[in-house]
C-alpha cells in the first residue's frame, strides 16, 4: 500500500523531531514544514534541516514570515528572555516567550499545504505536561482547531478530506517523549531547543526550554547529546 502523506510541523527541537519519527513509524510519508518567523533562535532551522535530511522526509519547506512586525514576545521583540537556575522555578503563568497566535499561524500554513497534498493528517509536537504554559499547546485548542480546519477548506466542504491534527506527545512528560524517540532511533544530537543561545550558538542552559529539555534527559538518566560541543 502507498504511504499516505502527512504534514509535520518541524521546528528543529526535541518534540517536533519525535513527532516526525512517530508519524513515520505509523506509516505516513512525512512532508516537513518549518518557519523562519523572525525568532532570535534561528539556529533551530539548521537543526530542522539536519533532522529532515537524516529522517528521510519526502520534502522540507521553510516558510518565511516576520512576526517581529507585531512583537509581543521575547522571541520576536527586544525583550529579555527569562532565565532560571532550576526548572522548579518555572511558574504556571504564560511566559513572555509565548509568541502571539504562533501555532494558529503555523497550523494554517500546514493546513494549506495538506489540502494541496491531499493529505488528511497533520502532526504537531505540542505537549501539555512538561511545557512552558503556552495556551496553543492545550488539547482543547487542538480540538477546536481541528473542527475549524474541516470547515475551512474546499476539500473538507466537498467531503474529499477529513483533517486530523495528531498530537502524539500531548500527554507525555519530556522524559517519556525522549524514551519514545530513542526507541524510534531519533538522534537528539541533531536537535536544538535553546531560546537564547550565545553568539556561537551554544545553548544558554537556563531558559525555560533548556531547563525542560535538561529535565527530560535527566529523567531517562542520560546526557543531552546536543550539548556535546562538536555537535553545535
Give me the secondary-structure topology.
Elements: E1 5-9, H1 14-25, E2 29-36, H2 43-54, E3 59-64, H3 102-117, E4 121-123, H4 139-152, H5 154-157, E5 164-166, H6 174-183, H7 208-219
What does this structure look like?
This protein has 232 residues and is α/β, with parallel strands linked by helices. The chain has a single domain (5-231), classed as Rossmann fold, CATH 3.40.50.620. It has helices at 14-25, 43-54, 102-117, 139-152, 154-157, 174-183, 208-219, and strands at residues 5-9, 29-36, 59-64, 121-123, 164-166. It has a 5-stranded parallel β-sheet with strand order 3-2-1-4-5, with helices on both faces. Strand 2, helix 2 (43-54) and strand 3 form a beta-alpha-beta unit. Helix 1 (14-25) packs across helix 6 (174-183) and helix 6 packs across helix 7 (208-219). The mean pLDDT is 91.
Short summary of the structure?
This protein is about 35% helix and about 10% strand. The chain has about 230 residues and is an alpha/beta fold. The N and C termini lie far apart (about 40 Å).
Amino acid at each position: 500500500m502507498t504511504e499516505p502523506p502527512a504534514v509535520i510541523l518541524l521546528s528543529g527541537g526535541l518534540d517536533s523531531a519525535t513527532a516526525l519519527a512517530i508519524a513515520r513509524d505509523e506509516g505516513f510519508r512525512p512532508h516537513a514544514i518549518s518557519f523562519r518567523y523572525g525568532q532570535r533562535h534561528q539556529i533551530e532551522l539548521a537543526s530542522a534541516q539536519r533532522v529532515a535530511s537524516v529522517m528521510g522526509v519526502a520534502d522540507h519547506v521553510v516558510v518565511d514570515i516576520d512576526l517581529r512586525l507585531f512583537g509581543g514576545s521575547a522571541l520576536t521583540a527586544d525583550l529579555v528572555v527569562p532565565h532560571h537556575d532550576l526548572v522548579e522555578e518555572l511558574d504556571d503563568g504564560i511566559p513572555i516567550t509565548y509568541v502571539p497566535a504562533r501555532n494558529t499561524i503555523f497550523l494554517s500554513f500546514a493546513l494549506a499545504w495538506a489540502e494541496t497534498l491531499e493529505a488528511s493528517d497533520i502532526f504537531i509536537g505540542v505537549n501539555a505536561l512538561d511545557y512552558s504554559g503556552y495556551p496553543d499547546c492545550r488539547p482543547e485548542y487542538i480540538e477546536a482547531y481541528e473542527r475549524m480546519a474541516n470547515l475551512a477548506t474546499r476539500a473538507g466542504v466537498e467531503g474529499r478530506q477529513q483533517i486530523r491534527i495528531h498530537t502524539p506527545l500531548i500527554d507525555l512528560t519530556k522524559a517519556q517523549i525522549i524514551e519514545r524517540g530513542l526507541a524510534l532511533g531519533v538522534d537528539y544530537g541533531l536537535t536544538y531547543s535553546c531560546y537564547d543561545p550565545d553568539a556561537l550558538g551554544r545553548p544558554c542552559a537556563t531558559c525555560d526550554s533548556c531547563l525542560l529539555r535538561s529535565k527530560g534527559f535527566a529523567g531517562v538518566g542520560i546526557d543531552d547529546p546536543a550539548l556535546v560541543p562538536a555537535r553545535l
